[in-house]
Design a protein that fits this description.
single chain; alpha/beta; 7 strands
Length: 153
């Protein structure tokens, strides 16, 4: 469930394994490229594959293999610059209630072509991180496949 449960999904994919994640990446890429800039909220439990999805998506867009895509759980923010584009990957799982995005040097989403945000519910609403899209990721009964639902805002 997301912070905006009343939004109807733009699309859903159910029962997707990591071997089939290309389906999710392709559909998500198409949706995100329809805007000049995006803020994608990634909503799901610990271990749902939020960072894995960011890695696959950035690679799909041309991020070189030599640049690692890792979880920003302890750094809060990882930046990726390639092909004249800049993407930020925020993980606010450990954020305290007095957390400020400006502490990370994020003053404006216009500095990024896209922001991926994990655990948006950890901090108060802020215009810089208002979502353009929300992706819900849920485990299935087996924990080896996921269900995805993209919502536009």
């Amino acid at each position: 469930m997301t912070l905006l449960d009343d939004q109807q999904p733009v699309w859903q994919l159910k029962g997707v394994s990591e071997l089939d994640i290309g389906q999710v990446v392709q559909k998500l890429s198409t949706a995100l490229k329809q805007q000049d800039r995006f803020v994608l909220w990634l909503v799901g439990p610990v271990g749902a594959g939020k960072t894995t999805l960011v890695r696959y998506l950035l690679r799909h867009w041309g991020l070189p293999e030599k640049i690692p895509v890792t979880s920003p759980t302890f750094t809060y923010l990882n930046n990726y610059e390639f092909s004249d584009r800049t993407f930020g990957h925020l993980d606010l799982y450990r954020a305290e209630s007095d957390f400020e995005l400006t502490d990370l040097g994020i003053g404006d989403v216009k500095d990024y072509n896209g922001l991926f945000l994990e655990w948006p519910e950890q901090v108060p609403k802020h215009p810089i991180i208002s979502p353009s899209h929300i992706l819900d990721i849920a485990y299935t009964d087996t924990f080896t496949v996921r269900d995805y639902a993209l919502r536009g805002v």
